[in-house]
Design brief:
Order of helices and strands: EHEEHHEHHEEEHEHEHEH
Shape: globular
CATH class: Alpha Beta
Oligomer: single chain
Structural class: alpha/beta
Radius of gyration: 16 Å
């Protein structure tokens, strides 16, 4: 099962959600793998690269999850980071051609995009374009549970639905004791958005689809 994970924006926790979900699926006995076609980072930050975090969850090396040639030490969208570094800027087709999964194929193939749905991942494409080309079984959209969640989810979900997918929305950092978080979740559910409030709930939904 191919799953594409996008975020409503950068820094909403999609890598954390992905790593936690993959760790639990692996604990339950499912073979999993993760890929991130391109990534960029701020070399001044001291936290692990997204590919390393995902690799720790799946048992893969970080440079397998995201190729070194597609890892850019500039905090910009990958195609802009590549240009700023004077390196070749990949096209969407090149990223797709580089995508390799383990053999035999794992039960869960998790692909993480960058930034928000319309953040460029290649010279000629963004996460929405990538979803359209890959035709995944499931699309997971990670959003922050706090202020602005409803607007962010509505704006992000629309172009994904145009691709024929109804994303599973995970409200990251959801706190049941927080009145705003509860109201955001209720409003999204009233919008007929599949809204989950924990990684555990996400894992259950994904496992049922296997």
């Amino acid at each position: 099962m191919l799953i594409v994970c996008a975020g409503t924006a950068t820094e909403v926790g999609k890598t954390w959600v992905g790593a936690a979900a993959l760790t639990e699926l692996r604990t339950r006995g499912h073979r999993v793998a993760a890929r991130k076609p391109a990534q960029s980072f701020d070399p001044a930050d001291d936290h692990a690269l997204d590919a390393d975090v995902l690799g720790d969850a799946t048992g893969e090396a970080g440079d397998v999850v995201c190729l070194p040639a597609r890892t850019y030490a500039v905090p910009m969208a990958p195609p802009m980071a590549a240009a700023a570094l004077g390196r070749p800027v990949p096209t969407l087709q090149e990223l797709l051609d580089e995508l390799r999964w383990p053999e035999p194929e794992p039960a869960v193939r998790w692909l993480e995009t960058v930034g928000g749905p319309r953040s460029p991942i290649a010279a000629d494409g963004d996460a929405v374009d990538l979803i359209g080309r890959l035709e995944p079984r499931k699309v997971v959209l990670v959003a922050d549970a706090g202020l602005g969640a409803i607007n962010a989810v509505r704006l992000s979900i629309a172009p994904i639905r145009e691709q024929g997918h109804d994303p599973i929305v995970v409200l990251n950092r959801f706190d049941e004791a927080n009145d705003l978080h509860r109201r955001n979740a209720a409003w999204l559910l009233g919008d007929d958005v599949v809204t989950l409030l924990s990684v555990a709930a996400l894992v259950d939904v994904l496992e049922q689809a296997l």
